[in-house]
């Protein structure tokens, strides 16, 4: 990954989550075993910066919900997925909200039939049909790249390390400086939930 930061980088979730430069920023996302879709997000030195907790899906609420919390337990993002949506769409809202005024982004499959999994991400203020970000899987599906729109500019790379009976699945994430890492983490957990 290039060590050059895009000049247009702006906070998506919040400015404090924009990784400082000049080097790429790295995180480890660990999927908790036997606890639904719960994750722990740490810096390379082991400091916890986020946790992700899932809620139960019921007949009354036929949606999947994930909540991204900061290290102090404050809710940052509410991710909501309609289980019956054909395009595998997720919506991200600020805090625990589901109000349209608190929408941050929508992530959906770029097409129904794909050789390689690809998702388009539209920020809340985007009224066009052109995506703001794109997530594309490798041929084997164990890693993804996050691109700016339909450009070739990769802002984050995600590599999945499969777990064993003794270890949990991990995602090694590398992002360019000034990229909102809370946003990238929110995208990643929707890929595996």
UniProtKB/TrEMBL annotation:
InterPro entries hit by this protein: LOR, LOR_sf, Tubby-like_C
Pfam families: LOR
Chain segments annotated as coiled-coil in the UniProt record: none
Superkingdom of origin: Eukaryota
Gene3D superfamilies: LURP1-related
Annotated family: Belongs to the LOR family.
Protein name: Uncharacterized protein
């Amino acid at each position: 990954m290039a060590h050059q930061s895009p000049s247009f980088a702006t906070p998506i979730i919040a400015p404090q989550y924009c990784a400082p430069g000049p080097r790429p920023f790295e995180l480890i996302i660990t999927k908790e075993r036997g606890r639904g879709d719960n994750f722990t997000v740490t810096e390379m030195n082991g400091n916890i910066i986020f946790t992700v907790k899932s809620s139960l899906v019921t007949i009354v609420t036929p949606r999947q919900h994930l909540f991204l919390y900061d290290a102090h337990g404050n809710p940052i993002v509410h991710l909501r997925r309609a289980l019956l949506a054909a395009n595998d769409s997720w919506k991200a809202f600020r805090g625990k909200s589901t109000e349209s005024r608190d929408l941050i982004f929508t992530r959906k499959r770029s097409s129904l039939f794909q050789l390689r999994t690809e998702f388009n991400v539209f920020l809340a203020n985007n009224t066009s049909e052109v995506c703001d970000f794109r997530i594309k899987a490798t041929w084997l599906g164990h890693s993804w790249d996050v691109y700016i729109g339909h450009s070739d500019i990769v802002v984050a790379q995600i590599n999945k390390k499969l777990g064993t009976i003794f270890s949990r699945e991990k995602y090694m994430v590398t992002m360019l400086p000034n990229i909102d890492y809370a946003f990238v983490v929110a995208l990643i957990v929707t890929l595996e939930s």
